[in-house]
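Might you be able to check the backbone structure tokens below? Thank you kindly.
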Amino acid sequence: MTINVNSTVKVKEDLIYSKIDNEVVMMTPDHEDYLNLNGVGSVIWEKLSRAQRVEDIKRELLEQFEVSEDTCEQELIAFLNNLHDKKLIEVD
């Protein structure tokens, strides 16, 4: 599945993760990878706690960080595709 700005994304409900200070740590569902998200990654992760359109997440990030719209969209979609490939998020 290709993620785009009209996709709706959220964290998989059965995923176990923890927030420690400004970082999010988790194991992938197959327990093959340990992930540690910090900085912008942890900010995005928190936004994924409820289903949201990618466009809405992008808009919020543009308000929080100094980044061009094109760069924000490209990097956000790449990040979300990586999470989806690791089976950490659901996409509609």
Summary: Residues 36 and 61 are 20 Å apart (CA to CA). The radius of gyration is 13 Å. The beta strands are 8-11, 17-20, 23-27, 34-37, 52-53, 89-91. The first strand starts at residue 8 and ends at 11.
